[in-house]
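Q&A log
Question type: sequence-to-structure
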Amino acid sequence: AKQRAGRAGRTGPGKCYRLYTEAAYKNEMLDAPIPEIQRTNMASTVLTLKALGINDLLNFDFMDKPAEPTLISAMHQLYALSALDEEGLLTQLGRKMAEFPLEPQLAKMLITSVDLGCSDEILTIVAMLSVQNVFYRPKDKQALADQKKAKFFQAEG
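Response status: OK
Response body:
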C-alpha cells in the first residue's frame, strides 16, 4: 500500500485511494507480501531443477525457501504425470517435458498427443491455455472485435 501511495503523484498531481479500512490495514495486512516462490505451484520449478541435475530439493539453498509441503506436493504431481520415478529422479518423459516452456501438465499433453495422433488439436488447446486472453481487441476495431467475440457466447455456458 505504501509503495502504491508513493507512485500516486510521482510524475504529476495524483491521489491514492485505499479500498480498505484503517483497521484492516493495521490488523489484517502483512508488512510485506509473501514471496511468489512461496505462494505458487512449484511443479515447473521442480521439473527444471531436476532437469539441471539438482535432486535434493528439500536441502537446496533457495533464496526464499518454499514450504516443504509445497515441494513435496510438486514432486507428487510430477510423479503422477510420470515425470519422476519412485525415487524422485527424472524419467525420460520428465526430461522431454522439461524442454518445453510450459506447465508440466501441458507439456505432457503435447508429448502424449503425438502417440495418440491428435497433436494438431492439442497444440491449439495448449496455445489457448498458455495465454491470458485469446481475444485480440485492437483499438481501431474494438466494435468489430466485440461482435466477433460475441459469436462465442452460448446461453447454456
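Response note: The radius of gyration is 22 Å.
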